Each structure stands twice: as structure tokens, then as C-alpha cells.
Amino acid sequence: MTKTVSQIPLPSPALGTSRAVTVHRYGRPGARPKAYVQAGLHADELPGMLAAHHLLRRLDALDAAGAIKGEIVVVPAANPIGLSQSVLEYHVGRFALDGRGNFNRHYPDLASIVAPRIAGQLTGDAERNIRLVRAALLAALAEQQPADETGALRKLLLGLSIDADFVLDLHCDNRAPVHVYLGTPLWPDGEDLAREFGAEVVLLAEESGDNPFDEANSAPWWVLRKLLGDAHPLPPACLAATIELRGQADVDDATAGADADALVRFLQRRGVVAGDPGPLPEARCDATPLAGNEMLRAPVAGIVTYSQPLGARLRRGEHVADIVDPTADPAQARTPLHAGVDGVLWSHCLHRLVRPGDIVAKIAGAEPIEGRGAILLTT
Predict the structure, then answer these.
(1) 340-364 pLDDT, tens per residue?
(2) Cα 236 to the chain's mean position, in Å?
(3) SS3 80
(4) 281 DSSP assignment
(5) Exposed, middle or buried: residue 12 (CB in 10 Å: 0-12, 13-18, 19+)?
(6) 68, 59 Cβ separation under 8 angstroms
(7) Hey, what long-range contacts does 300-303 have (CB within 8 A, 24 or more apart)?
(8) E strand spans, 315-358
(9) Which is nearest to 273 in space by CA: 37, 75, 71?
């Protein structure tokens, strides 16, 4: 057995309090390939945490059988800060209630620090260049001095993952099918991941804005290549993805077990774990640009009702939903919302009472939307 479990403490945010992150490790430290899997960064998104529980059970059995070939790090509940937050009996796990922002945004930009340090050191040996960059990224991160507990959590998680070959961050949406966020340079190499999970939408971007966790791991590789030029080989050596495991209410053992099986098959296919993953499932979608993802917002307050199911393939102008004002004259109580792009309707909001500006639906279009701006994710 190679498994170890550790508790890594966070700095105390207040007198008499303390929190820690639980980390499960398998395989020999430093073995390749290295895979990092985390869940619950948005602490109110439970499907990934239950899937991580089932994944640990499977990895325990594989470890006992001597099947761990690389190194695997699993953080099944990545955000003890968010897990502790509750307001009026409602769990609030997406944002830090002390004003530190979205837990999945604002990770350190390490590429800009590393680039001048390794300039002139790259050679024609791609594997050597990868090792050089990984060491430089770890060194740059170690120098960071976060001023608060949330910043320390970001540094801790990135320190566990920044040198991995594969980084899988498990999330979920409000109400949605499985969908995957990937860096554009990682496609089509990452297609097997999307196919293992039966993803119905894959959203691609080189830069999605505000440096989320997956991008903080993967983007340094193509940013460094742009900064340092193409004279020496520097492949995108970290396949990092955000895997959205349906909606917040999709929490049951059967589904989570199937997701854990998909994770194991991916690890087998990529040589981290021994075993035959079987044939790769058929693709269920084409990848589309994140910049083509339309977010339909409520123009008025009211109750949202949908006329189109999740997965519907829409044409521009099709009716998607109504915002209903139950206090108004019934003849004037409905404000219709229509698709602004051709694409797949992949997200409904979970809470049906909405305010002006709330996102009530998302549609994955095949072409970038003009004027979309640099921030492509929700807040």
C-alpha cells in the first residue's frame, strides 16, 4: 500500500479557530504521470465531493492490488472555509463571506514571474524544458505571501497541483448536463476526458478571465511559449480541466459511482493507473468557444419558467423562457426571453425567483459573440 493521508493546516482567521485541508496521496512521490483531483472548491457544489468519496474507495482497491503506476493526489473537500459558511440556514460556498471573492478565481499569475527567470535556459530537449518550467513554477509559488486564509488556501491547492500532468477540478452548475471547460490548446488532446464523462458541452478558451484554478495550472505553458518564443519545444504539459458534474441537486451514490468509474478509466487511459479502460465512448458534442456562450439574463424580477428543456438545440430567436410577475395583470405578466445565438441550451437556474440581471439560461454557440469582453465566466 502506498497511500498516505495528511491534514494541512490553514492560517487561523480568528482567535480560537483553525481549519485544515485533507489530502490523500497514492503512488511514489515524483512518479509520472502525476494526476491531481479535487472537489468542492465551490463548497456548495456537492456532486464532485461525493464522486471523490467513491474515487477514493476505488483507488484504495487499486493501490492494494499494486495498480498505481504514477502519482495521484486527491483533495475530496478542497474548501474548508466555504464548508463552514452558512447564512440563515443556507450554505454559501461559492464566495468568501469576508469579501475575498469567488474561491475559484484570482489564482497567482506565475507565468509572468517565471518567464524572465528561465529565458535563455530552454534547449531542444522538450522533457528537460518541462522539468525546468515545473521547478520554476513551484519556486515562484513558494515565494508568494498571501495575507489571509483564502489566499493561503489558493496557494496551498495550487502548490499541490502545479507540477501535475493532469489536473481535474470537479464542480457542478445550477441545473445542467455534464460539461467541461478546457484551454483551447488542450483540444483535441483532452477529448477523451469529455467522452469518458459523456459531456454534452465542451467550452474552450485560452483565457477566460480572473484566472480560475484550472487555468492557473494549464495556461502558464502556452503563455510562456508566447513570451519566450518557439525556438525551443515547450508543449502544454498540464492537461487541466474543470468538469461540471451536472447540477447542484444531482447528488446520489449511483451517479457519483459512475463518475468515479469515469475518472478511473481516464487515469488508466493516461497511464497513471494500470488496467484496461475499455473502448472510448462516442463523442456527444463538438467543442465550442467559451466566447460563444450566451448568458440569458432576466430583464425584470419575477418567477422564471422554461419552454425549452436542457439539451435543446436552439435557433436564434427561439423562445426559451418567461419571467412571470404574479402581481401584474395576467395579460401583461410575462416577459419572454429568446435565444440570441444558435446553440445548445445547457443551463437552467436552480432558484426560480430571479432579479434583474440574474442569469437564467446559458446557450453554447459555435461562434464567438461580438463584444463579449474579456471576462467569459460568471462571477
Answers:
(1) 999 999 999 999 999 999 999 999 9
(2) 18
(3) helix
(4) P
(5) exposed
(6) yes
(7) 300/325, 300/335, 300/356, 301/325, 301/354, 301/355, 301/356, 302/326, 302/333, 302/335, 302/353, 302/354, 303/352, 303/353, 303/354
(8) 319-324, 334-338, 343-348, 353-354
(9) 71
User: Residue 52 to residues 59, 214, 238: CA-CA distances in angstroms?
Assistant: 10, 17, 21
Residue 294: Cβ within 10 Å count: 21
CA atoms within a 13 Å half-sphere pointing along the CA-CB vector of 239: 19
pLDDT tens across 55-109, in order? 999 999 999 999 999 999 999 999 999 999 999 999 999 999 999 999 999 999 9
Q: How far apart are CA 24 and CA 75, in angstroms?
A: 6
- Residue 34 identity: K
Q: Are 216 and 108 in contact (CB under 8 A)?
A: yes
- For 336, residues 6+ apart whose C-beta sits below 8 A from its C-beta are 319, 321, 322
Specify whether the CB–CB gap between 78 and 93 falls below 8 A: no
Strand, helix or coil for residue 182: strand
Cα radius of gyration rounded to whole Å, the chain: 21
Over 90: is that where the pLDDT of 235 sits?
A: yes
Cis check: omega of the bond before 188, within 30 degrees of 0? yes
Q: Residue 265 is inside which H or E element, if any?
A: helix 253-269
Question: How many H-runs (helices) and E-runs (strands) does the chain carry?
Answer: 8, 21
Q: What angle do CA 265, 79, 357 make, to 5 degrees?
A: 95
